[in-house]
Amino acid sequence: MTPEDRLLAFLSEGSEPAPRADVAFVAEVMQRVAWRELGVRLAVGAAWAGAGAAVLWACAPALDLAVSNLAPVLAPVAGMLALIGAGLVLGAPLLRRG
Fold this sequence. Notes:
This protein is an all-alpha fold.
């Protein structure tokens, strides 16, 4: 008998087996932890969205000037990109079948 086996036999003498975990309790705790994590992630996302909105609001005059100057030039490009995107979205199921 190795020293590890003797130690294991000594430690296991007189000890009761560990109680089994209650599955319903573990599931409830996991669900509450998941809801708490969801709340934290939503709060962080809302904070980032608010910060982004504030930055865009502060930059609105410069963005308005840039968009008004570039819109006539980029309108055809935007139209072509929209058509390509729609073709990819609508054609994706056809590509998956083949």
